[in-house]
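Progress report, Aim 2. The chain analyzed during this reporting quarter is listed below.
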Amino acid sequence: MGRYENWMRDWPGEPEAATNTVSFVQKLALSDAFKTLFKEGMSLVEEAAAYLDGPGRQESRQLRRPAALAYATESMRLTTRLMQVASWLLLQRAVNEGELTTAQALSEKHRVRLAHQDIACDPEVFEELPAALRQFSLKSIRLQARVAHIDQSMAASRERSPAPRRSAVASQVERLREAFAN
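Predicted structure tokens for the chain:
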């Protein structure tokens, strides 16, 4: 009977096994894929800032008035978009490295806006903007969409954290345990 009790105690269908589930989204946030996303995001922030502070300024001075206004608008939106993405990435990295708890990050996250932003100007005017600004804008929109998708998946995962469920086999094992205990 001792062997049977040990086997029953170690049965994988027990409730303890059900509570040790690992969220795919949380695993993704701790993975090398997140590290790659982080590097990509921060590199895009640095490259865009260098462009806007250097070559972008010279290029914007050569634009006709409607395109210059579109340049100013799009560069502001680009900067805002990238700062929001960088803020999210930095918060997630702080959680991953144990500098913040998930609860602390969630309390700070209300400041991060990952709402999708399209190009603000007319498509014809957008085509008049310098190629580098157009590329940075499009890359930042794609990056923002990826980050927003991960963020939404993480939020959904937190909302529907699985309640410990007993499998049908675990219920039967429990009934057997009760029968042999008497």
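The longest helix spans residues 65-96. The CA atoms of residues 101 and 108 lie 11 Å apart. These observations will guide the mutagenesis work planned for the next reporting period.
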